[in-house]
Structure formats: structure tokens, C-alpha cells
């Protein structure tokens, strides 16, 4: 693995899931040699709790040193080539990425979309430009349009609870008071299309995701129909892709309730967290034994470990 | 030890003081095996200098990895059960505490009171809810109403300077321009009641502390009387508990001066820091050989080490 | 070495440069014993990217633990002796420096000038007072008037590209939209005066630096003349020292261009970064093989390692 920004960077995603599961079973402290004398820089352009802590934890377990940098505070980067930098941007991505590459063996980047300009967001330019100008592997800690570490952890969790039959996995839109990115949903679809599952996407009209992610996925506007016989229900809110960044419907009827879960095949409930209780999902679902959300968060550590290990092994350190 | 949030979590506080003193004498680097492969998450809802650095230092000395998280920045937690989370709170304490428990072997939490609503503050709900929902030991890095790591370090410092006789220890209110919590004072009383000392509390009328903390302590409004024959004088400001969170008196006459220290039995001066010079205490006292404040701050490291060691040993890691 | 705040703290700067080069050649992970069980506290009163990461990296490579503290957030220090602290300052430098000295073996401090009051800035009082009251070595991570870690890295970079002859080194003022400190320029002069080079300082009238730094340096207002035959061109903006903190000239004609570099002896281009492209220097210069800026940033790590090693070796740990 040379970088980790989407499922397309991984030659065999199912094998990476198995690697994560193997790392989860390893005795504590037995893996410290893997990343010995290696360092990761974690750049946060946006807030992060789970990703911040689980990626640090993963680095520690592999014996790496992690250095955090909260880029939000007054670090204005210029991304335009040829720009005359006489305004607010003090540093160009060309220097920034090259310089940090010298202090770290891997660079992790967290960035969110502005949800104002779809074309700009979907160009994923902050992540892409770091990739282009960095001289070490780049790992996405969630970008404007994808959250691959989350999706890998989701798949690991599904694998741990996989039934004997080919499971039905439903990604369902759910209500939320604020406009959220499509990143988690986009990524989940992208990864699940590579898994041995029947994948269904359910959302109200107006919440269609970008075709690049939904191609080949069966889509329905009928949540109940989607839940029928489901083995896994993944709830997540996102704002509109068509009417970009808008909340076009607040339909509380899409909240996941025990009644809806009763339609499933004793289905497991999933969410990436943080989750709005009694808005996205009812307490009774989240507090039931079928809720996997805490284990999903736990698996973030093993997903990150598998990715870091892959990058360390697949990267010779020779600069271009 | 299963948690560390007050003296009540410690079966034998005097033994914990001795443990801290023993750890202080240990050669540097000789204790790294104790916390090997263990991780502590330090959550700061409020600023912290001494606690932040000394707890990190303690973790390092024990071979642990420490991960800091500054929760202040936009991490709005919901603490109400059954809440419909459609307003500003993005995450429920139930998920937050359970998730962080998976990334760390111990969770430290720093939080301050709002000083507006006494009942809410004295329920110590942030700390209490973390305790309830965490699956690993919780350590208070100062809460709304207590600062047990400080009190343990204070006791260690008193022990190091203990005279041959049973010492007289005075906790004296002192002036301050801003309204401060009662946490340090509350905790100091709670711990000193378990120590082999004569404890006296001195403050102007209107600064009575909560009865749960003062029960059994001799209280006076006469600072000079309190100082007479004292072996240790601990100065600290707090705002009113009765007229909650208010400054009901700014009496500059309560500042600790050389004249007042002259009443003591060559008494040692203590304060938790940071301290307002020439408001709480005169320069001449703070800069005298009898001031223990720097050593108190030093002992924060050994207090934290003793507690972390106790938690690591008393905790099997088996989740509920 | 007892501290590292300017070239005057170093008995043999050229030997320190050689030490940094030797550490750069050392196999990864081979130096961890040097700082084993030692800790550095990094206090940031101002933002920092390169210094923050490279100093952390240096500490890690030497086996030290680094603790960061972002002092900007509400940590108001009093520096005045005898002050009655009844206003906004909650802690006196006397306690702050003494306390942190107990948690760390070395204290690093980053602070910027206010650029309002020249006398105050040039007293470098924040750094100086930390030095005075700390009980462990203090290392400047850039102060109001100097940036010695940068200058040491600059010298290391020049050494790596040193021609057979005694090189001509030019420090040239360059335009910038904002008022910047003189620290990098001051320090560069101070260090280069100790190196075996021909040093020339070029700037427009009105940008004279303080005499303490320029004494003995040949100064010209003619940039082209300065560039003629130069082996190294170091570009940097600074605001006026005379008309303190002001931008007295924005002359775009001082931008470093390929045309100007053509006057040099195939000169290498240097800058401390971050750099404003097409304001300070043209893209064509920065993207040419003669630009050393990325390697300069890389050498920050080895400069910091040499200094930390020197401090660890030259410091017995015995408190005053």
C-alpha cells in the first residue's frame, strides 16, 4: 500500500479486513517492533475525537511515535499553483507537504467539506494536494468526500458478526438537525461494494448520493422495504448532494426505531458516531444488544493498525 | 483502587502517601515496566498546566502512553437520559465514555464548576457520568467540587516536612479578585481529616464550605488565632458556597503576610498554585525558605504516579 | 552547553554544526539512549509548525519524551517583580518557570515580539525571565529577537553545499504584505559572523537592523551588487527596526527572481519558510534545483538534536 485515501488504494480490501482482525487478536505489546523508530504526523484541519484517539492508539500499539498538529489555528494554506501570495495565505501546500514529509514517515490528514461549493468539495483538493506534494504515504483521517478508516472498521465489525448466509446490509439515511457531509455514506458504499454482501441504500427523495458511489447499488425510497430481512442496518445522516449541502427534508419518520428494527432479520444496528439519540435512532435501539456502535468505534483502532502496518511495509522510504 | 475521584476511593490514604514517597525515591527510569503497554486518555474540559504536565510526566515515568484531548473546542456532550438530541449537543456521554474506554486503560477528566447553579455543580455530574459510563477506571484531574490529586500531593508535602509532634495544619481563605471554585479547599479538608494532624479552617463569615466537607473540622473567623502555633498554613481563595459563586468579601486583611506567619510555629506556607502574589500572599512569604509551593507542585508527579500505579494494579481490565 | 538562546551560548558553533551533520548520518533508532528517561516541555506562546514538529522529532530520535503546552490559551503570566496581582495575570513567572522545571529536563519556549514597543521586545523579557527562573536548561524555539535553531540549521545546510572556496553568503530583505519580526535575520547574521564565509547584508534604506547584529557586516542598498558572485542567497522579510514594526517600503523590485539569481555564482537559494511565493521569491527560483529551502527545514531536526544532546551532556541536573 502506497497511500490510504479510498478503497481504490487497497489491492485486496477483504484481506485488509482479515489483517485488522488478526491484529485485534494479537497480545498487547506484541506488535511494537512493526513501527519501531517510525513517526506519524496527524494534521487536523477539523475536529476529531474517535479518529484522533484511535489512530494515535494504533500508532502506539505498533511502536510508532505520533505527533499531532491542529492546523485549524491560523495555518492558512495556499493551494493554487502560480498564486501571488500577497493576501491571507502564508504558506503554499508545496512547501508544507514537502516539509512535513521530512518529520514523519506517514502523514494523516483530517479535513471536512465546506458544503457550499460541490465541485470544489468533490475535487477533494486538500487531501489530493497533500498526496501530490508529500514525499511519504498519506492517510485520510476523513476527507471532504470519504472516510475510509471508518468504512474499514465498519467492514471489520460486519465480519465479526457475519451470519452463515450472505448478509443483507442496509445503509439508511436518518434525520439530523444540521447539514452533514456525505463522506461516511460515500465511503461505506464504496467499501461494501467490494464485500460479499447484498447492499441496499435507502433514503428519502432528494438525498441521492453521487453516482460514482451509488453505481450498481440498489436504491429505494421505502425504508421499511429496505429493512425487511436486513442483517445489518447502518444509519447515517447526510445533506443533499443535488441541492448541495442543504437539508431538503427533516422527516422524523426516518428515525430508526424498535418497530423498524423488528422488520429485520434480528438485524444489527450500526452508526459511525457521534450519534444524535432520539433523532437519528431511538434509545431503545442504541441500548439494545443488537447495537454494534461501540464495537465499531473499537475497531477503528484495528483498522488504523492494519493500514499503518500496510503503509510501513509497502513503503520503502525512497523519495521521488 | 478502582477509580480515583475522592479520598473515599482510597482504602488507606496514608499508605498511598507512603507509596508516592517511595516512588519519588526510585531511580529515574526504574519504573517503566509498571505501565508498559498501557495508555491514559486525558480529557480537558478546562485549562490545566500543572495537572496536565505532572500527570503526563507520571504516565511517562511509569512507561505509559498519554493521549491528550482538549474537549473544550466544540465537543458538546449530552448528559440527560432520554434526551431528544436535536439541539446543540452532538454526542451523548453514554457513547463518549464507552468509546474512549476502548482507546485507553485509564481516563482522566478535568472539569470546573459553572459557579451559577450550586445543585448542579455539587452533583459533579460530568465526572459522575463519566464514571458511570466508562468501562475503565476514571481519575479526576480536578472536578467541580474536588481536586484529589492536589490534596494527595499536599499530604505528601506535609509528610516530608512533618515535625516530631502532631502538626497543626491551617487552611486559610485568602482574597482573590475573581470567583474561584471550592474544589481545592473541599478536597484538602477531606484528605486532612484522614491524616494525623490537628486541622483548623479559617475564613471570614460568609465563606462557610459545604457541611459534608467541614463536619468535624474546627472553624474560626479569626485568622490570627488560627495561625498561632501552626506548623503548616495552606492559603486558598474560594467563592461563597452559601451565596453561591459570589465574592461576598474582598478583605485584603486576610492576605498572608510575614507578620501573620510570625504567629506560627515557624510554619510552612502552602498553596496549590497558580497564586496571585501580594493579593493572596506577600512576596516575602512566598520567597522565604518556609514556602513549600514549588515542592507541592513537584509532588503532583509522585501523587499521580501512586494513583496510576494503584489503578493499574487494582484493575483487571475485565469489562462489566 | 547550559542553555541555547543565541550563538553566545555555544562555545564552538562550527563544532555544533559538525555534530548536527554527524547526527544526520547516524542510523535511525541508534541514538535513543542519549535522551533516555529525559523529558522536554515545549511551551508555545505563539504558533509554530516547523519548530514544533522538528523539535518533537529530534526529541523522539534521542529517546526523549516531549510534552507540548500551548500557552496562548488564557495563561496570563506576570513578569513584574513586586506586582500586586489583582488584575488579569493569574501566575507569576517565578512560580511558572520553577514548577515546569520539575516536570521537564529541558524547557523550550516559543515567543514572538509584539512589534509595538521596541525596547520591550529587544529586552526579550519572556525568554530572559524563563531563563532566570527556570532550574533546567532553556532552549529558544524562536524569541522576540532571535531564532537560533533556525540559524544553526541554516549553517548546517550551507555546510552541506559549501564550495571549495570561501563562499559569499548574502542575506537579502524581500517584500512581504505583513509586518514581520527581525528575529530570523538577526540570528542569521549573528551565526554567520562566526562561520568561515563572506557575509553581505542587502536591504532597502529604512530596513537597517540593530547595530548589535550588523556590526562588522558589509551592508548595501543595492541588491544586484550583493547578488553578484554570491554562493548563497538567503531571502527574508523583516519590518523596520528604526520606525519600529512598520512596513516602510513594499518595493516589489526586491523579490528574488531568476534574473537576479543569474547574477550569482550558480547561487543556492535559502529561506526559513513559510514563504510567500511570487512576493518574496518567484516560483521559478523556489522550484529550481538550486533552492535549498526543503533541506533547510529538514536540517531543523538535526540542529535540534545537536542542541538537545549538548544540553543533556552539559547539564548535571543539579539544581541551583
CATH architecture of the largest domain in chain A: 3-Layer(aba) Sandwich
What is the total domain count of chain A? Answer: 2
Assembly type of the chains comes to homotrimer
Strand content of chain A: 5-15%
What is the tally of helical segments of chain A? 12
Q: How confident overall, as mean pLDDT of chain A?
A: 96
Q: Would you state the CATH class of the largest domain in chain A?
A: Alpha Beta
Query: Gyration radius of chain A, to the nearest Å?
Result: 20 Å
CATH superfamily of the largest domain in chain A: Aspartate/ornithine carbamoyltransferase
Cα distance, first to last residue of chain A?
16 Å
| Largest interchain contact | A-B, 28 and 30 residues
Largest sheet of chain A: 5 strands, parallel
Helix content of chain A: 25-40%
Strand order of the largest sheet of chain A: 9-8-7-10-11
N-to-C order of helices and strands of chain A? HEHEEEHEHHEHEHEHEHEHEHH
What is the molecular shape of chain A? Answer: globular
Spans of chain A of 5+ residues with little confidence (pLDDT < 50)?
Answer: none
Model description:
Three copies of one chain form a homotrimer. The first copy, chain A, has twelve helices and eleven strands. Chain A is an alpha/beta fold and 320 residues long. Chain A has two domains: 155 residues, Rossmann fold, CATH 3.40.50.1370; 130 residues, 3-Layer(aba) Sandwich (Rossmann fold). In chain A, strand 7, helix 7 and strand 8 form a beta-alpha-beta unit. The longest helix of chain A is centred in the C-terminal third of the chain and has 22 residues. The radius of gyration of chain A is 20 Å and the shape is globular. The relative contact order of chain A is 0.17. The mean pLDDT of chain A is 96. Chains in contact: A-B, A-C, B-C. At the B-C interface, helix 2 and helix 12 of B face strand 2, strand 4 and helix 3 of C.
Amino acid at each position: 500500500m502506497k497511500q490510504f485515501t479510498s478503497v481504490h488504494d487497497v489491492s485486496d480490501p477483504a484481506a485488509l479486513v482479515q489483517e485488522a482482525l488478526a491484529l485485534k487478536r494479537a497480545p498487547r505489546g506484541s506488535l511494537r517492533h512493526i513501527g519501531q523508530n517510525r513517526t506519524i504526523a496527524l494534521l487536523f484541519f477539523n475536529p476529531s475525537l474517535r479518529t484522533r484517539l484511535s489512530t494515535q492508539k494504533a500508532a502506539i500499539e505498533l511502536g510508532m511515535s505520533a505527533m499531532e498538529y491542529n492546523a485549524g489555528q491560523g495555518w492558512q494554506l495556499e493551494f493554487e499553483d502560480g498564486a501571488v501570495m500577497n493576501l491571507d495565505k502564508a504558506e503554499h501546500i508545496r512547501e508544507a507537504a514537502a516539509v512535513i514529509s521530512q518529520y514523519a514517515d506517514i502523514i494523516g490528514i483530517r479535513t471536512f467539506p465546506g458544503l457550499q461549493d460541490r465541485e470544489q468539495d468533490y475535487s477533494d483538493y486538500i487531501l489530493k494536494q497533500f498526496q501530490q506534494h508529500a514525499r511519504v504515504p498519506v492517510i485520510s483521517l476523513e476527507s471532504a468526500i470519504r472516510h475510509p478508516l471508518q468504512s474499514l472498521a465498519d467492514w471489520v465489525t460486519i465480519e465479526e458478526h457475519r451470519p452463515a448466509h450472505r448478509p443483507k446490509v442496509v445503509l439508511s439515511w436518518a434525520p439530523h438537525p444540521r447539514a452533514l457531509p456525505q463522506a461516511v455514506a460515500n465511503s461505506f458504499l464504496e467499501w461494501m461494494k467490494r464485500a460479499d454482501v447484498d447492499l441496499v441504500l435507502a433514503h428519502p427523495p432528494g438525498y441521492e448520493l453521487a453516482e460514482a458511489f451509488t453505481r450498481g447499488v440498489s436504491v429505494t425510497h421505502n425504508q421499511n422495504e429496505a429493512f425487511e430481512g436486513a442483517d445489518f442496518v447502518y444509519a447515517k445522516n447526510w445533506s443533499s448532494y443535488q441541492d448541495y449541502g442543504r437539508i431538503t427534508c427533516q422527516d422524523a419518520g426516518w428515525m430508526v426505531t424498535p418497530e423498524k428494527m423488528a422488520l429485520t432479520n434480528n438485524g444489527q444496528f450500526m452508526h459511525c458516531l457521534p450519534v444524535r439519540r432520539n433523532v437519528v435512532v431511538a434509545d431503545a435501539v442504541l441500548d439494545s444488544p443488537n447495537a454494534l456502535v461501540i464495537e465499531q468505534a473499537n475497531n477503528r483502532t484495528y483498522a488504523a493498525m492494519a493500514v499503518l502496518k500496510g503503509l510501513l511495509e509497502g513503503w520503502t522510504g525512497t523519495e521521488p
